[in-house]
Amino acid sequence: MDAETINRSQHNPSLLHVDFSPFNDFMEDNETNSTDGERNLMGCVQIRIPQELFLTLGLISLVENILVICATIRNRNLHSPMYYFICCLAVSDMLVSVSNVVETVFMLLNDHGLLYVHPQMLHYLDNVIDMMICSSVVSSLSFLCTIAADRYVTIFYALRYHSIMTTQRAVALIVAVWLASVTSSILFILYHTNDAVIVCLVTFFCITLVFNAVLYLHMFFLAHGHSRRIVAVQKNRRQSTSMKGAITLTILLGVFIICWGPFFLHLILILTCPNNPFCNCFFQNFNLFLILIICNSLIDPLIYAYRSQELRKTLQELVLCSWCAEM
């Protein structure tokens, strides 16, 4: 196994107090050797994931999320608060894709002797990547909550929706989320040695999950009874559309939990049992958690396209126009 892949798969749990990404120990463990699925001295199975897979998934995810952003900007029918929030969620996913592509390119170039990066420069680049990933975590969770709240207002306050969720308020929410995300990322870099950083991230993750769960349960249990009170055909159609949006966001939340859950479990185990043999075995497959995070960024745009006919149509037009331009 090459040294850089080893560094991905053997991400030292003590280093994760400092970094989300494996860049910090990128050049430190060059003497370690392992093969695919081979057990190490602790009896743990380590699964090798090629760097090329990281790069391929990152590039696909990057292209997908750029298309979603372009489609939202291009189609005026998508200029509504819900699609603004979905567009911002795509930007959050894009941060993960960009950080992964940049990191993997540097690793591959260094592996083939095509690039030498000064350790100090590597440290700065590592901080930038960590900040991007941390911003993605916070902003993704925040926008999932924002979209859930938007769907809730649409279903239960349908007649007042346009007065409650105005474009100005949507923009204000978006600005507030990004400011909070960037600020928290900077604090993460400044106080990376403090366990409180991990505690705050895990707590925020749990709070947002509970918030979304409460809203979704309320929506799905009471929406049917609420729809009976709306007798106009047009409003019934709006109710159906709103529930479809709620179902879409439920799928997004489920995918987020599946893809980011192991990473947050990793953080919890670092705090609770950093020296436990079982926990150390869990730490050894950190590269799998990274792949899941990248897959979340790749899957989200597919969910948008599948669940929204308007967005799917615009994406098809963008792809066809790009293809025709190349002919």
Automatic annotation (TrEMBL):
Pfam annotation, one family: 7tm_1
Segments forming domain G-protein coupled receptors family 1 profile: 64-304
Matching PROSITE patterns: G_PROTEIN_RECEP_F1_1, G_PROTEIN_RECEP_F1_2
Bilayer disposition of the protein: Multi-pass membrane protein
Role played: Receptor for MSH (alpha, beta and gamma) and ACTH. The activity of this receptor is mediated by G proteins which activate adenylate cyclase.
Family the UniProt entry places it in: Belongs to the G-protein coupled receptor 1 family.
This protein's name: Melanocyte-stimulating hormone receptor
Organism this protein belongs to: Betta splendens (Siamese fighting fish)
